[in-house]
């Protein structure tokens, strides 16, 4: 198994998950919410469930849930995640991100490869370990911090439910998430790499801002920050990816979670930026006749 796969495993919850600036764009063109909250109650025909917006990081102060969220987590019977983590998904990532014939240097050229290697070396990763990775996979790695040994928030929730003997279900497959990037042409993957390198200077600042807004539970502010970030991106490739990441994934998850909402006791935990806007999960639920209300501390 190649050295980069554990890094990619932490990245590909989405991407959670799934790029710092790309994550900031999840909510672009979406209407602001009337009330900012990460935790929402869903009710229809006497069935009560909850949806919780996560962030795919392992920071201890984020993984440690606020009391009102922790109560809902403890009381829930079933957890619905974007994708469950496990040995099978790890192997799928290894298979789908590995080059079979060419090397990364051969595909992207020596100049771009040297730039990538320099950045990765600064992060403590041997450039040689990148040689068998597809360009899009390296692009993802460039846009996330070196993963912690601790589980990210979503995985922490998964372990908590499994340890309590409770059910955990996926709303997507890892293949469906990987398809978003694996369908890119070689030229599009190279463009993705160039854009990833260009945003390195702002990476730490943008990530810190996203964490700050998440800790505040301020979806409206996250939305506003997302809109500001869109002004810095001018790429047809990214525009198409955003349609896939936002609208199509939200619709797919919405269709699959409805069958679970016929009973009470479900907790849906997905990336917070899947929640707001006209194409967000909260509005899709409202349109389907569900009463959706924020849960206050």
Description:
This protein is of the alpha/beta class and 297 residues long. It has one domain. It is built from 15 helices and six strands. A six-stranded mixed beta sheet has the order 4-3-5-2-1-6, with helices on both faces. Helix 1 (5-11) packs across helix 5, helix 5 (87-97) packs parallel to helix 10 (174-182) and helix 8 runs parallel beside helix 11 (186-198). The longest helix has 22 residues, at 236-257. Residues 1-11 and 13-35 have low confidence and may be disordered.
Outline of the structure:
This protein is an alpha/beta fold and 297 residues long. The protein has helices at 5-11, 20-24, 60-63, 67-75, 87-97, 104-108, 110-122, 135-142, 153-163, 174-182, 186-198, 200-215, 219-230, 236-257, 281-287, and strands spanning 39-44, 47-54, 78-81, 167-170, 266-271, 291-294.
- From the helix content, strand content and strand pairing, which structural class follows? alpha/beta
Number of helices: 15
Radius of gyration: 19 Å
Helix content: 40-55%
**Poorly predicted residue ranges:** 1-11, 13-35
End-to-end separation: 44 Å
Into how many domains do the coordinates divide? 1
Order of strands in the sheet with most strands: 4-3-5-2-1-6
Beta strand count: 6
Shape category: globular
Q: Helix and strand string, N-terminal first?
A: HHEEHHEHHHHHEHHHHHEHE
Assembly classification? single chain
The mean pLDDT is 84
Main beta-sheet strand count, sense and barrel state:
6 strands, mixed
Strand content: 5-15%
